[in-house]
Amino acid sequence: MNLWAIIIVASLGCLALKVSGYLVPTSFLEKPRPSRIANLLTVALLAALVATQTLAIGEAVVIDARVPALLVAAALFALRVPFVLVIVAAAATAALLRMTFG
Amino acid sequence: MRAVRSTNDTAAIRQGVSVSLAVSAYGVSFGALAVTAGLDIWQACVLSLLMFSGGSQFALIGVVASGGVAAGPAAIASAVLLGSRNSLYAMRMAPVLGGGWLRRAAASHLTIDESTAVATAQPTLRSQKVGFWVTGILIYVGWNITTLVGAIVGDALGDVSRFGLDAAAAAAFLGLLWPRLSQLQPVVVAIAAAFVAALLTPWVPAGIPVLAAAAVALLVGLTNWWGMKPEEAADVDVSAAAAGKAQS
Question: Which member of A18, A40, A77 has the closest CB to residue B109?
Answer without folding.
Answer: A18
